[in-house]
Amino acid sequence: MHPILKTLCGAIGFLLASCACAEPTLVQDVRVFDGERVHERRSVLFDKGVIVDADHRGAAPGGARIVSGQGRTLLPGLIDAHTHAWRYHELPVLFGVTTQIDMFTQVAMLKESRASRNAARADLFSAGTLVTAPGGNGTQFGVAIPTLVRAEDAQAFVDARIAEGSDFIKIVMVGAQGKTLELATVKAVIDAAHRRGKLAVVHVNTEENARAVLEAGVDGLTHLFTGETIDAQGLARLAARHGAFVIPTFTVLESEAGVQLDDLLADPAFASLLDKEMQSLLKARYGTAPRPARLAAPKALTAALYKAGVPVLAGTDAGNAGTQHGASMHRELAALVDAGLAPVDALAAATSLPAKVFRLGQRGRIDKGYKADLLLVEGDPSVDIRATRRIVEVWKDGESANGLRDGQRKLVAQRLESLKTALALPPDGRIGVFSDKGLKSPFGAGWMPSTDSFTGGKSTVTLAAQPALPDGQAPLAVIAKVAPELPYAWAGVAFMPGAQPMQPANLSAATLLRFKVRGDGKTYQAIALSQGVQAPRARPFTAGPEWSEVTIPLAEFKGLDTAAVTMLGFNAGPQPGDYRFEIADVRLLER
């Protein structure tokens, strides 16, 4: 298992240990939003993961846990209608999101998530592998995926996705000319999905393409798009005429526009559940400069869609810069209200509506026989949508998530505490001791092979200690074969400075990375990764036939947080081929 996945699994295991056992529960005298409308005073009884009575009268059953609803509102668990469930599987439930509708993830991740369904994770419904053209949007993430070229291959392509486990079909019509699907191919995929009884949704980024796919019979648009002007009324009428739904994804549109209109991290209750890395993704923006006027078009179109009766769903596009799983749903709800939806309809956009249009069964409502996925908040979000943030308790399959929330706060606090003090560097700064007995280091999880295999690549690497140099230090030979499958293919060696792989370590006492190298004359990459940074920072070096010394100031790894370093590495790639280099005397130095 890749180190990142090991770390995530460890965190999930910690949280699972805190999960409360299910018991009959009566939320008493509470305001209820049932998925469509508000009931000012009801009592709701649930047991064994199912709502037993949505309007319980009389005494509580024997042995039931009683929860006061005074001044509070009980909602169905929230459904995020647009996520990318690559990681952070433990977060959604902590923020009241009990179901995720995933628009693109690895098939292996999809299968693993379904096999491990439990009360600590949001249920996952997924498109699995999206439908895109060679080199098109979706192929840039370093994960090998099948692509589609010809309309006549659409049915076979759709059938393959369904066989992998896709619940619906996600199509991408975005990209440069020649790197996006032609409209005829998109229509063929839509028709192929419908022949198999599956929904077809499309990601577009222009008004022209939105009109084209609506005319082609798409069931829903997975995004709106930024812009300053748009024919909102005309496009809304077209969507209504074709019976389509729309997921605006304002959270990521704000990121594209370079603005932050709602600082969720200003709320200590939210900030305490997110470690530094999780917070960094939420703070990030795709737009390099604020351009709030770019939100005019999606706001106008959302208002027009709402007035035209088009189902508008709440989805965050979580997994992208400016978003975070679970937390961002509360911004999305507020953004929908800011765009013109009544608060009660924004709540429906995150509960009953996605359950209905994506055919998710007995969820998204508070009614007898429905899943006991529930969210209890202080106040009345049907009046003030931001009341959804005042979370009292979350139940997933009838089990309270309060233990999970407490466990996450402790975990976050521990991580923050562990990074306060810089690690003491070895007196000579040397961080690698290589020999035929192993690859050792004075601290951290140490040295290990690193390849693109966990992203679906087929690159390989062999590490072998070599005879000692005159100074007594044994070089490490890195013998790599970089495969051509991925655009960001690599193979090399990584040093993990944290106690566990991919855990951060405070290396702020160091300012320089120094090492000796020789090899086949090719150019390689020294990389550094820190918590909260999505892609490694890299600096090139050449491995010539004679030993040379390379010194890289850590400041040259732009954006690296030396107080939270998760990995240092030396990689071959991305060009495919055979590589061989040796490194020795690797040191982290104060100056």
UniProtKB/TrEMBL annotation:
Residues 1-22 form the signal peptide. It comes from the Bacteria. PROSITE patterns: PROKAR_LIPOPROTEIN (PS51257). SUPFAM superfamilies: Composite domain of metallo-dependent hydrolases, Galactose-binding domain-like, Metallo-dependent hydrolases. InterPro entries: Amidohydro-rel, Galactose-bd-like_sf, Metal-dep_hydrolase_composite, Metal_Hydrolase, Metallo-dep_Hydrolase, NADH-UbQ_OxRdtase-assoc_prot30. Keywords: Signal. Residues 74-408 form the Amidohydrolase-related domain. Residues 446-559 form the NADH:ubiquinone oxidoreductase intermediate-associated protein domain. Pfam families: Amidohydro_1 (PF01979), CIA30 (PF08547). This is CIA30 family protein.
